[in-house]
Structures are given as C-alpha cells and as structure tokens.
Amino acid sequence: MKNFNKNKTEQVEVMALFGYEMTPCQPLTFRRRGENETEVTELLQTHIRFAGEAVLHIFDILVGREKMTLEFNSRDLSWHLTQ
Fold it and tell me: Dihedral through CA 33, CA 38, CA 25, CA 21, nearest 10?
C-alpha cells in the first residue's frame, strides 16, 4: 500500500530567540544535515500539543513563499521540520 502522506519530517538544528516580547520562543534559522542555514522569513502561528509525557511546541513558518512546520519536543529537546 502506498503512503499518500507527502510530508517529509526530518530532525534539524534551530537557532531561536527566547523570551522576546509576547512570543516566548521564535525560531530564526534552521539547518538541515549537510546544508547551510535557512532563514525563517515569517512566523505564522504557534500552538502546543501534548503527546504522552512530552509537550510539542509547534511553529508554522514561511521560508520564502514555502510554508513549513517546526516542532520542538520538550522531552528530548529536539527540533523537527515538516514540509
């Protein structure tokens, strides 16, 4: 059976600004394995989802004109990018 979910998720390194004005965390750039840093053009929306013992902080972002999602896992302190 084919997987129709075209979204790719990968672990990334993120440079974020914490404690800025009304936004407690704002991702500024991210880096995929083996690539240069990519700048976040705009932060669209943030929300939180609970997954077992972890809290996932979800950031909908724009990179140029492409919409992506960055997720921060509070349990293992990892960042994941979904396109």
Answer: 160
